[in-house]
Amino acid sequence: MPEFDVLVREATKHDVEAIVGFQSAMALETEGKALSIDTLRAGVRAVIEDSSKGYYLIAEVDGAPVGDLMVTYEWSDWRSMTFLWIQSVFVDAEWRRMGVYRAMHNHVVQTAERDPGLCGVRLYVDRDNHGAQRTYERLGMSQSHYDMYEIDFVL
């Protein structure tokens, strides 16, 4: 594996276009969906401008963004604490399997471990994405006993 440092930082308004590009590519690659760029841009800006919705992390190598993910919150009344949810993960194809996701993942986990108001980290993954599932397991995550159901009025 080549030698490089991955810097993980919280996204700012200057990262909106990079995030829009990553998320558009991810939707097309993983679900075959071509998203409205204007709607996606508005959605990304909403998170950047309102931290109660969550936040994005950007992974950079030599100052260039190579991946991102979004973190959102879930209140657990059972624990009286908050779970962090990892969502919308994307790593540029040229940088996959080089530790970029691991760096972002570790950043989220370390954030959760340091904050006494946080009780864990969760994510969901497509049931057919076995590669991602193996990655998450190698990083210490285990499959939950929950299945996800939804009603999606938009997509």
How is this structure best summarized?
The chain has four helices and five strands, in the order E-H-H-E-E-E-H-E-H.
What can you tell me about this protein's structure?
- The protein is α+β, with helices and mostly antiparallel strands and 155 residues long.
- The protein contains four helices and five strands, in the order E-H-H-E-E-E-H-E-H.
- The chain has helices spanning 16-31, 37-49, 100-114, 130-138; strands at residues 7-10, 55-61, 64-76, 81-91, 118-123.
- The protein has a five-stranded mixed β-sheet.
- 19% of the residues are buried.
- The model has no long low-confidence stretch (mean pLDDT 94).
Number of E strands:
5
Strand order of the biggest β-sheet: 1-2-3-4-5
Q: Provide the residue-averaged pLDDT.
A: 94
- Measured between the Cα atoms of the first and last residue, the distance is 38 Å
Note the overall shape.
Answer: globular
Order of helices and strands: EHHEEEHEH
Number of helices: 4
Tell me the helix content.
25-40%
**Cα radius of gyration in angstroms:** 16 Å
Strand fraction equals 25-35%
Structural class comes to alpha+beta
Low-confidence stretches: none
Major sheet: 5 strands, mixed
